[in-house]
């Protein structure tokens, strides 16, 4: 039994040594003063009363709030106004900082010139719709007959025959006239109007036409019927595109604001505006002269109305946009009377370019065996220069 004390003594020494070794491995307890001087929160950034939807780590140190510069830039603040790295928002010049502990938000009030100009779209951006092509054929017809009290009678049949597939469509039109009774001086028989194959490319808003085509023309030139080939723009393939420049209305909001736009007395749309400079874009399609009234309303219900006169010219092109067509073939004569009466070869070209939202440059040229014609035009909202053209034989 004398062994037990020695065994207990060994166990006690083991426990003591284990506890002592464990105390050496643990870190020192934190300093209470340091814990009270620094803390890290994850807060939502509110900039000039606008919720940026950004939750970022915010360090509170010695009664100041620090935020990473990259997080502030992501929330919309300009990089040239912020120092790199960690930014002391409490000491940053021109900035007021407030901590909303109940809603876990950091409220920032920054100078107005810090906020970038934001485009505000009315009704959303128009989207391009990809057409679904099919295969098939159709026949349109219009039958007409008449009989007068003098005994004259006639019947006529107009038709359009069309075949279409994924590549394009083929179309042929004409009419058949037949005298039933009476005077036989009227023209009878079948007359062909147009026979043409058309291939379209929706993405680029262009089309090819082979057969009986009409040359493109401007407001100060003339078009002719040609048997040949043509290539050019067709903006009707892209209804989502607005080819002419629309007015933009700019302003500045101090706080989040609701905006209503009235065009010539009718409400054209409503939207929400963030604090800072803004430009209203994607306005409803308007044309000609008119008056717009922009009504802004803040959270307290205060309203401010601004009247803005405007003038929109639909014959202008947006900056950088182009339009035009090229046609080659033989001049068609006696259209509607003869089926295959084609004359000399000719070529025609038209080109338009939007130099700015206020100026569109236009040019047109034609050439035949004994004729050459060329001209230019500068169209704008303030007027237009006279065309210049010449003929050479």
Describe this structure in words.
There is one protein chain. Helices cover 9% and strands 54% of the residues. The chain is mainly beta. It folds into three domains: 35-112, Roll (Ubiquitin-like (UB roll)); 136-240 and 319-392; 245-312, Outer membrane usher protein (Immunoglobulin-like, Sandwich), CATH 2.60.40. The strands form four sheets. It has an eleven-stranded antiparallel sheet, with no helix packed on it. Strands 4-3-2-1-6-5 form a six-stranded mixed sheet. The radius of gyration is 39 Å and the shape is elongated. The chain starts with a helix and ends with a strand. The model is unreliable at 1-23 and 384-393 (pLDDT under 50). It comes from Salmonella enterica subsp. arizonae.
Helix content: under 10%
> Taking strands numbered 1, 2, ... along the chain, how are they ordered across the largest sheet?
8-9-10-11-12-13-20-21-22-23-24
Low-confidence stretches: 1-23, 384-393
Q: Looking at the structure, what is the overall shape? A: elongated
Q: Which structural class fits the helix and strand makeup?
A: mainly beta
Beta-sheet strand percentage? over 45%
What is the rounded Rg? 39 Å
Give a quick account of the main beta sheet: strands, pairing sense, barrel closure: 11 strands, antiparallel
Q: What distance lies between the first and last C-alpha atoms, to the nearest angstrom?
A: 140 Å
Mean pLDDT: 81
